[in-house]
Structure formats: C-alpha cells, structure tokens
Amino acid sequence: MPLRIDVITIFPDYFAPLQLSLMGKAQQSGLVTIAIHDLREFTSDRHRSVDDTPYGGGAGMVMTPEPWGQAIDAVVTDQSTLIVPTPAGKLFSQPVAAELAHSTHLIFACGRYEGIDQRVVEYYRPRIDVRELSIGDYVLAGGDVATLAMIEASVRLVPGVLGNPESLVEESHQLPGVEYPSYTKPPTWRGLDVPEVLLSGHHDQIARWRAEQSTIRTTHNRPDLLPGS
Ligand SMILES: COc1cc(COC(=O)c2cn[nH]c2)cc(-c2cccnc2)c1
C-alpha cells in the first residue's frame, strides 16, 4: 500500500525539491505519492484571503478556519493523519518518522503568520488522528520547511525507498546518541590521516572505536541523548 501525502500550503513552490533526488525517485517508484495543494484554491472571496486579525488582540494575523476546512475535506479519509507543524507541537523524532513512514495517508497543514485558528485542530481531532508536531525550539515563518524536513525523514524510512537498507539497519541498531565520524579516500588529506584502526581490517576493533567515538561525540554535543540521562 503506497504512502499518500497531501500538503496544503500557500507556497506550493516551496515543495519543488520533493521532485528531486531520493524523494523524486520514491514517487517514481510508486512507493509514495505526494500532492501539493494551494490553500488559496479553497477560498471564496475575490481577494482569496486566508488570514484575519486575532480575537483577543495581539500582534500579527491568524489563518481563518474555513479555507482549511474546505482544503482538508477535499483530501481527508478515515485513514488520514493530519499533521500541523508548530513550535507548540510534540517534538518530531526518528521514532515519529518511523511511525509516519508506516501510515496510509498523511495531510500536512502548513501554517503561516501566527498560526491557524485552533478550531481546525479541534474539528478534526474527534474524526481522525491529528498531530501537532515541532521540529525544534525555534520559530519559522511557516510550517513549510518543517513539513519538508518531516517528509524527508519519514519517506526515507518507507520500505524500498532507500536503495541500501543496510544503512537503515545500522541507524536503527545504533547506540542511542550521535553517529561516529566517517572517513573515505584519500588516506591522507592536507596532512591529515584517516584513523589507523579504520585501515586495519580488524572489524571488532573498528566497531569498538566507532562506539567510543559515538559516545565521545554524544557526551560533548548531545548529553541529553546519553543512556540514563
Ligand atoms: C501552525 O502554527 C504555527 C506554525 C509555525 C511554523 O512552524 C514552526 O515555526 C515550527 C515548527 N517546528 N518548529 C518550529 C509558526 C507559528 C508561529 C508561532 C508564534 C509566532 N510566529 C509564528 C505558528
């Protein structure tokens, strides 16, 4: 069953990169189908407006619910998962990407301005799986870049998309933490040598060295990922 993805956005051009490289091949292979929808096609006023001033005051504008209701209704089924990228969401992660990779239908609602009228989430929550997801603790101008990141992270985990599942195996069995440093030819570059152990052919020593390097890097860069933290 191919994974179907519908993206609703006011900037469809943001998603041109999905036609390239791995994402493009995934679509050609029939494993994934991705459709981009312009939210403004679902407006009914002459100005095709999608936002208005916030109730309760405050800076900025909020996206009105009706165009979203029309756009989501046009693609939603009872198998859909609605994903709203937002700084207020639960943190997206590799396990979440793996879950999404095994979904049937994902709808990404890319908000702009200060966000989307909360009643859109409230309306669909009792009907389908709705997930407000954050890709990190910073504020983007819209959910489009977050959607690209989540699609790329998820689609690469769809069985058959990655040529060499080998790299996925290592990724999934890897110690929790960051990956070890990688090297390739030439053996010396600008006076810098590749660590001897990697040229030794001693696979158990190489595995030990890589685990050690991963722990050193995790301790330094991401202590929050260390086991037991
Ligand atoms: C749907 O509601 C949104 C969506 C977005 C775009 O997503 C992100 O920024 C994001 C997603 N993961 N990490 C960051 C931005 C806001 C927003 C909030 C406050 C002030 N300005 C804008 C609200």
From TrEMBL:
Catalytic activity reported: guanosine(37) in tRNA + S-adenosyl-L-methionine = N(1)-methylguanosine(37) in tRNA + S-adenosyl-L-homocysteine + H(+)
The alphabetized UniProt keywords are: Cytoplasm, Methyltransferase, S-adenosyl-L-methionine, Transferase, tRNA processing
Compartmental location: Cytoplasm
Domain spans labelled tRNA methyltransferase TRMD/TRM10-type: 3-226
* Entry binding sites for S-adenosyl-L-methionine: G111, I135, G136, D137, Y138, V139, L140
An example Gene Ontology CC term for this record: cytosol
- CDD domains (UniProt xref): TrmD-like (cd18080)
- Cited function: Specifically methylates guanosine-37 in various tRNAs.
Name the family the entry cites: Belongs to the RNA methyltransferase TrmD family.
What this protein is called in its record is tRNA (guanine-N(1)-)-methyltransferase
**Organism annotation:** Pontimonas salivibrio
Gene for this protein?
trmD
